[in-house]
Predict the 3D structure of the following.
Amino acid sequence: MHKRWRWLVGWMAGIAIIVTACAQGQITDQPAPAEAPRTDKEQPHDITLTIDGGTFIPDVTRSLHYDYMAGLTARHALESSGIVRFTEDRSAIQAVGEVSLDSTLEWGTRLNDKELASGDWDEELKIGDKLLVYVKTVDSYEAIPHQASLLLIIDGGSPEKKYYVNKYDDNTTVRDLLIRSGIVQFNPTNKSIVSVGGYTPQENEQWILKVNGKKLLDTGLDMRLKPQDNVEITLKQK
């Protein structure tokens, strides 16, 4: 009886040792817990320059980022963009890329959604500042509505396409828009184009007119334009 009791106690002790060893093995084999994801948001460390051409001049729409550095001004950010060109006295923006504006429009600048006058371009920017260049009417602080503009595109006679944004006026015809641009020269009767931007086609070339992508007949110069229409002059081989 005593031998049987001692055997039972020894058997139970052995089982306990095995269970403990297995449990320890399971703990040591577990992978280390993954690092908790960071919840803090990264603080802005750059300055953003956005050029808004809207739907009528998408080729100039872009967003540029500059690493912040002490002494960086709005003027320096605009100049280093590579597409913003100033007037000779550097008091206004003359053109953005190949886009020019008619006399009723001008390029405006905003800093963090507030109008930035050209006299303030030399103030230093701060980390996280957002600079915007956009089209507006002269002496106004509002962006020109897309439905109040006309776009003239010149494709030919120079390496790059050129864009001329015009403010829409009621009853404007294709001919009116071309004459108003100041770069399209007609014959004495104003019925055919002689040159564009000073370029006269060769004998095997001709200017093709399109309105909203559709070819315009010679009789279409008197076609009345609608807001947001675009007129394109393309130099083609005959």
User: Anything to note?
Assistant: The domain at 147-237 is CATH 2.170.130.30 (Ferric Hydroxamate Uptake Protein; Chain A, domain 1). The CA atoms of residues 54 and 61 lie 7 Å apart.
